[in-house]
Amino acid sequence: MAFLRLSIPRRALVSFGLFALRQVAEVRATGQHTENVSLPSTRYLGEIRDYILSTRVLSLRMALNREPEVLKPTAERLHLVEGWLDDALELQERVVRFRL
Question: How far apart are CA 41 and CA 17, in angstroms?
């Protein structure tokens, strides 16, 4: 009843103010979703892509250069990158499970 006694400009101010607060809350919720779900997922996918590319480069190096002094450190590096890839895949899987 008190709202009806307000003048039209004041009613409009209150109405638009409440509408703006609702919109800000929705924008905040969307930002939090992006920060907590989308960005980590995208970051892990980028890491996975980088590790896969590194694996391809190291595999090509091993195929082209068969000298033992080059082959051994390249194989060691390849095993290291494969471990990083497994870790990144596991983290990505956790993010996807959390999302569901």
Answer: 35
